[in-house]
Specification:
Layout: H1 2-8, E1 14-15, E2 18-19, E3 37-48, E4 58-71, E5 76-93, E6 96-105, E7 108-114, E8 117-121, E9 124-136, E10 162-173, E11 176-186, E12 193-194, E13 198-210, E14 220-233, E15 237-238, E16 241-242, E17 248-261, E18 264-278, E19 287-296
Antiparallel strand pairs: 1-2, 3-4, 3-19, 4-5, 5-6, 5-7, 7-9, 8-9, 9-10, 10-11, 11-13, 12-15, 13-14, 14-17, 15-16, 17-18, 18-19
C-alpha cells in the first residue's frame, strides 16, 4: 500500500507553458509555471499475493490518484493529491475462504515544493527542489464487514496525520532527462495501529525515442522510461508491540513509455519487484501497473 501512495506522489511538472517528460513513480524538480495549473489522473492496479503461509493471502488494489498542482511563484508550487481505492483481500482461515473488501476515498495529501537551486545553459537545465507535506486522515478508517472490523491494509484511510519530506534533483537536456529523489514519511498512530515509517531512494531516466532528431513543427515526442525505487519500511506497531511480520526492503524496476505533447502527456509503466527482503511472513508485491495522463493549463 505504501507503494500506491507513493506512486500517487510522482507529481507532474510543466515549465514555460509546455509539457515535458517526467518520472512516472515519483516527483520532479522542474517547476509549474507561475499562475498555472497541472492536473494528473493516474490509474493503477496492484497485486500483492506472494504469500507462503497457510492463509494464502491474495490482495488486489485498484485505484485512481487525482493530483492538482498550482504554481504560486516561479520557484514555489503547491500540490494536492486525493486517491480513491477499491481494496480486496482474499484469504483462507480455518479451512474457509474469506473475502474482505472496501472501496472509498483515501487520505488527502498536501505538499509544497521549492526550487532551491537552478542552473540553466543552452539546451539543458539542472534543478534541486526540497518538498514538505502532510497527509490528512480524510479516508474512512473504521469500516467493518460481516466478519469484524476490516484490517488496516483494507481500510481506505489510515486515521492518522502523517508528515513527509525530501528533495528531488532533475537534469534535463533536449534528448533525455534524469531525476533522483530521496524522501521520508513519518507515520503516526491511529486506532491502536501505527504503520512503519518509510524511507525511499528513487531514480529515473527518460530518453527520447522519437523523433530521432529535433526540428520545427514536431507536434509530439515519444519517451522510453526506466526507473528504480528502493523502499525501506519499518515494522508496523499494533497496541505498542512491533509486528515481526511487517516492514522490510523492496527494490522495484519500472519500464515505461510516455507520449508527450505541448499540453498533455499519456504514460504507462509496470513496477516489478526485483528484490523483496521483507520481515517474517510480510505479504510481498507481485507488480504494480500504472497508466494515466497529465494536462497543464
Amino acid at each position: 500500500m505504501k507503494t500506491v501512495i507513493k506512486a500517487g506522489l510522482s507529481i507532474l511538472c510543466v515549465w514555460s507553458g509546455a509539457a515535458w517528460s517526467a518520472p512516472i513513480t515519483f516527483n520532479t524538480a522542474l517547476p509549474v509555471h507561475e499562475g498555472g495549473y497541472v492536473l494528473r489522473e493516474q490509474f493503477m492496479y496492484m497485486k500483492i499475493a506472494d504469500d507462503l503461509t497457510p492463509a494464502q493471502r491474495d490482495m488486489r488494489v485498484s485505484g485512481v490518484m487525482s493530483v492538482l498542482g498550482y504554481g504560486v511563484t516561479p520557484d514555489f508550487a503547491l500540490f494536492g493529491m486525493l486517491p480513491w481505492f477499491d481494496k480486496r483481500l482474499d484469504m483462507t482461515m480455518g479451512g474457509q475462504d474469506l473475502t474482505r473488501r472496501k472501496s472509498g476515498v483515501g487520505d488527502l495529501t498536501l505538499l509544497g515544493r521549492y526550487t532551491a537551486y537552478q542552473y540553466d545553459a543552452p539546451g539543458r537545465t539542472l534543478r534541486i527542489a526540497p518538498f514538505l507535506g502532510v497527509k490528512a486522515p480524510t479516508g474512512e478508517d473504521s469500516a467493518r464487514d460481516g466478519f469484524d472490523r476490516l484490517p488496516p491494509q483494507v481500510q481506505p484511510g489510515s486515521g492518522s496525520w502523517d508528515v513527509l519530506g525530501g528533495a528531488v534533483l532533475t537534469y534535463q537536456t533536449l534528448d533525455f532527462q534524469i531525476d533522483s529523489q530521496v524522501s521520508y514519511k513519518a507515520n503516526r498512530e491511529a486506532n491502536g495501529f501505527r504503520a512503519g515509517d518509510v524511507a525511499e531512494l528513487d531514480g529515473s531516466l527518460q530518453y527520447r525515442l522519437w523523433p530521432s532528431s529535433l526540428g520545427n513543427g514536431i507536434p509530439a515526442f515519444l519517451y522510453g522510461v526506466l526507473e528504480a525505487n528502493l523502499i525501506h519500511s519499518a515494522r508496523d506497531d499494533s497496541g505498542g508491540i512491533a509486528d515481526p511480520n511487517s516492514g522490510g526492503t523492496t527494490l522495484f524496476i519500472t519500464p515505461g513509455l510516455q507520449y508527450v505533447t505541448r499540453k498533455w502527456i499519456v504514460e504507462a509503466g509496470v513496477q516489478i519487484p526485483v528484490v523483496k527482503n521483507l520481515n517474517g511472513t510480510a505479504l510481498k508485491n507481485n507488480y504494480v501497473f500504472t497508466t494515466g495522463f497529465r494536462i497543464n493549463f
